[in-house]
Amino acid sequence: MAKTRLVDKVNYTSFRDQLVSKSSSFKSNSDLQKFIESETAKDKVLFITDEYGNIIITRTASDVTAPATVVVADYNYKTAKTDADTLATLHEVSTSKTTGGSVIAIFLNNNNNEHSGVKNINSTYIPANSNVVYVSSGKKLYISNNSFASGMSDVLIPYTTEARTQKYRYKD
């Protein structure tokens, strides 16, 4: 039986290693944007860059009945080396040759931590009923079921209880 992989380790490592080695030469977010665009063009997938510097990569679905998956991450030239794993993951997931629903990767422009990309994101980039995953590096591990949420989510698990009855009486 053939294994199905979300990412090709060779392509992932190649993108990541090139990003790390070139990160010190980036002088602006425009430099990092050009790097991501250049690497994406090599993979021959559809992408656009909007007027706010967001890079949107679209891999068409092999199964048109499956919901789209939207994978999102910030890019900032000042933290490119630190964020190399995140950016390589986003790039590889959007350019890999897996089957299923369409995959849309959105690299959000986060120049100078001003978040101009997400503040100006066009809602048409995220199809209705799609699954949205925000990818980030950090020391804290958590799962968000509410992308771009301002806080952690509470999970409620419905339950019922039964009254406790005592069938036996113990004598001392």
Account of the 3D structure:
The chain is of the alpha/beta class. The protein contains four helices and five strands, in the order ααβββαβαβ. It has helices at 9-22, 29-42, 84-95, 116-119; strands at residues 46-49, 55-59, 69-75, 103-109, 131-134. The chain is globular, with a radius of gyration of 22 Å. The chain starts with 8 loop residues before the first helix and ends in a 38-residue tail after the last strand. 27% of the residues are buried. Mean pLDDT is 80; it is low at 147-153.
Structure annotation, total helices: 4
Beta content comes to 15-25%
Number of strands: 5
Please provide the ordered H/E string of secondary-structure elements: HHEEEHEHE
Major sheet summary line: 5 strands, mixed
DSSP helix fraction: 25-40%
Q: Radius of gyration over alpha carbons?
A: 22 Å
Outline type: globular
The end-to-end span amounts to 66 Å
Structural class, from secondary structure content?
alpha/beta
Q: Look at the structure and give the mean pLDDT.
A: 80
**Strand order, sheet with most strands:** 1-2-4-3-5
Brief synopsis:
This protein is of the alpha/beta class.
